[in-house]
Amino acid sequence: MNVTFPCPTCGRIATAQASLAADWQCPACDHRMRLMATEPLIPTCGVCGNHELYKQKDFPHWLGMTILVVALVLSTVTYYSYEKWWSWAFLIGSAFIDGIMYLMVGDVIVCYRCNAHYRGAAPTQAHLPFEITLAERYRQEKIRQERLKSEKP
To answer: How many angstroms from the chain centroid is the CA of residue 77?
Structure first.
């Protein structure tokens, strides 16, 4: 199982094995930290120790939006040239492609606090879908911590 996470200091994306406890050093800023070993069911985050994790589809959002925009542009062009059947074919075809890709793509488990992505782990009942109120709580916590850091002399 792999974990992808941003460096806490500089934000550079890093990858490590989540099943092994190891010392990690950022190649960009030399920040060091200890990554905890995680169990196969991932009850807590191995990067920050947070117990609130969620599951989402491991699908690049830019690809989904690209499919949608291409279908909309093609349907608009064909609708403008009075080819309504082609317009519907592009729109329904993009929905069909999206549905097939949704079924084929696996899940990834994500930490609310540090945004670590765990690939290759099976989600459990404890890993619920994304919850906006939890995400906002952690976003506000991060803002408060950055404000406190900037206020200290």
So the answer is: 34
Which pLDDT tens digit goes with each residue over 70-108?
Answer: 999 999 999 999 999 999 999 999 999 999 998 999 999
> C-alpha 122: how far from its chain's center?
15
- Distance, in Å, from the CA atom of 85 to the CA atom of 36, rounded to the nearest integer, reads 56
Measured CA to CA, the distance from residue 74 to residue 19 in angstroms comes to: 46
Q: Are 102 and 124 in contact (CB under 8 A)?
A: no
Q: How far apart are CA 13 and CA 80, in angstroms?
A: 44
Which residues have CB under 8 Å from 88's CB, separation 6+? 75
Cα(4)–Cα(120) distance, rounded to whole angstroms?
12
pTM of the complete model beyond 0.85: no
